[in-house]
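go over both lines:
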Amino acid sequence: MRFLTPCCFLFVFIGLASCDSRSEAEKLVDKAIAAHGGEAFESSQIEFDFRDIHYSILKTPDRFEYIREFSDSTGNAIRDLLNNEGFVRTVNGVKIDTLSEEWIGKYSRSVNSVAYFAYLPYGLNDPSVYKSLVGDTEINGEKYDLIKVTFAEEGGGEDYDDEFLYWIGKEDSYVDFLAYSYHTDGGGVRMREVSSVNEIGGIRFQNYLNFKPQDETVAVEMMQNLYESGDLELLSEINLENIRVEPLDE
């Protein structure tokens, strides 16, 4: 039998630690991403309609491209493009160069918000995301791991100070609930509950019931209590329609 010296034990310990260096929150998010589609997120282009606006979303580890297309009240064809290089709006095929920084920011946040929620939980592994395990909890008789997400100021976008909570099912790793507080465009706090699911192209797309509290200054950590006590108001429904998933060319 070959015996390990104390020095060898040290190397083995360091090796094991380096192989298991991800936090518990990161491991839970990894499982959730895999359950919702895993690598299919970054190897596909996704298209869908949301509130009469057509979206085309592409997101890989090193690049992204979000497009939304719609007609305004006068019939003009609007196309917004947000990618690694910035934001561009065209009207009837003509680029608009007169947008102020304020409106570029508003349009960019609007496009990014839809893409972010459509891709959840894939985006939770972005470098600017900080994840922590709050603990165990239960909603409607189902057990969940509760994860809190915050963002680094650098790389976290204009809304880097938003806070999110994700309820990840202990049995299936699905994100059945989420809540978030935001400070842009007036600020507020919301909670979403999955209402229906579409599985297309290996990706789990979720529709939501979108709730708000009477007092929108409450901490996001209070949303589960308000949900369970029936003190949240149904604000809207978040439904993705006409979903298409196209594999990216290798």
About this structure: The chain has four helices and 14 strands. The CA atoms of residues 60 and 115 lie 13 Å apart. The helical segments are 6-19, 24-36, 101-119, 223-228.
